Amino acid sequence: MMSPKQISDDRGSSHFRHTPFQIIHVTGNFFRIWSVYSMYRYLNQTGAPVVLFLFCCLLPSSFIFLILQKPWKGRALSNQQIVPSLINGVITALYFILWGKGLKSCGPLRAILSEYSGAVLGVLSGVLYGRRGHVWKKLNKKLPSKDSSDTKEEELVTEQALGLMGMMIPVVAGILSALRRVIARRVSLKNQQKKRLHAITITSATCFLFPLAMWDLVTGSSSGKAVELPFSAWAFLATIVFGIILIFYVDNIAEERLHMVFSSPRHLMVAGACIIVMEIAYEMDFSLPGFIVCCLVLGFGIYEATSLERSKKDSSIKSEDGPNGILGNDFDTSPVLPI
């Protein structure tokens, strides 16, 4: 039997081993959120079409993923893996479109937090479906805003025009993001397979965005307005490298090594700290107390949603056990990672 001192030493050594992965996770999320703010400033200053910009970022990203992962090499992927990955590419493309439009209209802070809200709704929908369907709670989330007498009239008009439909765009994008993560996890059984299938998914999303991007060019030119996509090295490189490629590997490391998924309070805490830094650096209209309260409410909702998910899995495992619990040792009762 291990002594309390040995147990504490093991916990300390385990925490020390996880420290490099935690640093990678924090750094990767910081650069990803930095790329979001850079993308927001670029889209608002240039007026570039969202779909066209995203296509120009996904195109080189898909080539990089294909070169790195080489899904055509190694053990052959089955149709049961390739077909869902192609469908997941369509969902990923819709997610990027809605999230990009929500980012341009709502701002980076609302877009990022709404993405977490959508992930929570994705978890709750899976839990409440088939269980106590009549239980449903309304979430009236007020995002932080700062009242100032120096606020310009144009900003006030924009804030008033930003209604429920505008806020629902990034929330729906968050639900699609949760759905694509679930599909990717269900299709790929191994970490290496997940990376290869992700390359197929991003390529499929790029192909789906191509006609939509061309439609933006055609409709823009036919209306007499020249469609311009000014080149900004930092905006494009940050979105490609940090917002699409690096964040996938960082989240993969966090999930495999730290058992930390996107819809978790720890992930939200890291993102919240990075948002505070970016809001101050970009001199945005920002209220720190309101943001902290909002994150606490959202974190509590994430914790409760994932608790419901774990209790659902535990109850399903217990229902499969025999009356005397004889079969209980044959099942792995370790918690399954949520969305």
TrEMBL record:
The keyword Transmembrane helix applies. Residues 314-339 are annotated as: Disordered. It comes from the Eukaryota. Keywords: Membrane, Transmembrane, Transmembrane helix. The keyword Signal does not apply. The chain crosses the membrane at residues 48-69, 81-99, 161-179, 199-219, 231-250, 262-282, 288-306. This is Zinc transporter 5. The gene is A04p015370.1_BraROA.
